[in-house]
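Need tokens for this chain, all 356 residues.
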Amino acid sequence: MHTAICKLNRIVLTTNYDCLLEGSSRHKGVAWVDTQEVRRVTQIDQRQRAVIHLHGVATRPETVVLGSWQYQSLEEDITAQFWQSVLLTKRLLFIGCGSGLHDPNIGPALEFVRQRLRRQKAESTDNPDEHYILVRGPDLSDAREEFRGTDIVPIAYGADYPDLERFLIELAENGQPRPSQNVHTYRTPPRSTPKLGLLDLAGPAEEALQAALDVARRALQALGQVERRSALPYGVDRWAYADQLYIHERTAASLAAPVARLLDEATALDLAVHDADVPIGRLTGQQEHNLAALFALVGELGGLCKDLAERVRERIGQVRAYSQLTDDYRPVAAALQEIQNLVEDIHGTVESLPRA
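Here are the structure tokens for all 356 residues:
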């Protein structure tokens, strides 16, 4: 692979400290600190093949840079001039930089190049149309999004890391590697869970379910308080209008705090159920008897959420009926409507979970 990389071009840049590239080719190794030699091999002697070590060479410890590139602060430095006067007038091929801008070593350099390309393109037409970065096929879609709007084009070299060597050799030999550039090619269906890992997957799912059940029980307790606070004295509908109005105003005021607590618990339940959704979803289709207890928890959670949804629905109907007597119930009704929507969504999510 090192030989293939060096066959691709007269000048090769590397952030590696080793000498494997020049050891596998006729390229000459040059450290970044040798500015005159860098200038000679890149601008003067067009026959010289060179590997330029941008982080230094291990055989010369004084040249080694133990950190990410800081080109942004090198506007007057030979390195920055090198990028602008030489590299950015040629096509660049980034190899082994699949992490893109997130790579701690090459990321700052890529960002620097991207900014320079944008600036140079605005100032001059004397530059290549695009540059390339090699990525795994499964990472192609994300890479295209990351470099959208730039002159750096992601190219898939194959489905996985071992395909890179074959890609580079074919590129160096005949310039015609043929891996698919269709992102859908690399989208494979999820593999079934290995039998040996079944209980390992069930552990996080069970913990998440227990947490969701605890929250569901707290939500039902909060709902019970709302139900108790909304209860009216027997025969109140036969009282004088002024007395009825007084009772309803007091009832509406007393509902504000428990309804707010119920909303908090319903929101917490929504988060807990979604936290449980992912680990449980990994168990979809499993019929193992070892998971019977876990699927029973799913059923229990579904029952609690169904009870919660039905009781909230009843309560909102009651409060809306009370609202005919006083507008004081309107904030309560609005909060209960929000809770009802939330709880129904939660119930729908729970019902979609696997139950063996």
